[in-house]
Amino acid sequence: xxxxxxxxxxxxxxxxxxxxxxxxxxxxxxxxxxxxxxxxxxxxxxxxxxxxxxxxxxxxxxxxxxxxxxxxxxxxxxxxxxxxxxxxxxxxxxxxxxxxxxxxxxxxxxxxxxxxxxxxxxxxxxxxxxxxxxxxxxxxxxxxxxxxxxxxxxxxxxxxxxxxx
Length: 165
Known about the structure:
Shape: globular
Radius of gyration: 15 Å
Low-confidence stretches: none
Largest sheet: 7 strands, mixed
Strand content: 25-35%
Strand order of the largest sheet: 1-2-3-4-5-7-6
Mean pLDDT: 93
Number of strands: 7
CATH architecture of the domain at 4-116: 3-Layer(aba) Sandwich
Oligomer: single chain
CATH topology of the domain at 4-116: Aminopeptidase
Structural class: alpha+beta
Number of helices: 4
């Protein structure tokens, strides 16, 4: 049985591993390529370089020291547009075993603790299990349109969760 732990904050290797998890999953299931993986890597790198624990959150899940999942809260614009939930991913090894719920719980408790009024995320149509998880945690679909922000045309969706203290 693997020793599984949730890490709070940057862990060496997490930037590359989170980009790898996204690149592998979205290529295998949606045909996304270099554009998408490079976007994840560059935007995650920029986030981690400006990371402020007073406003931002970053959690990884490791099994026997290997990162198998992640989730971030980008709080840089939380006062205006809300906190941005980003880079939520789980490896095949841990998907469907409740670890996504634990990450979501950590992220939303963090946001409530910071007094954030709402959290939003961008995703796209067709990710049924992810959408189920978002809705379970109080996120609602508020906008959708065709777009190419991931390098492939998809029906982009914005979900929001209003937080109460």
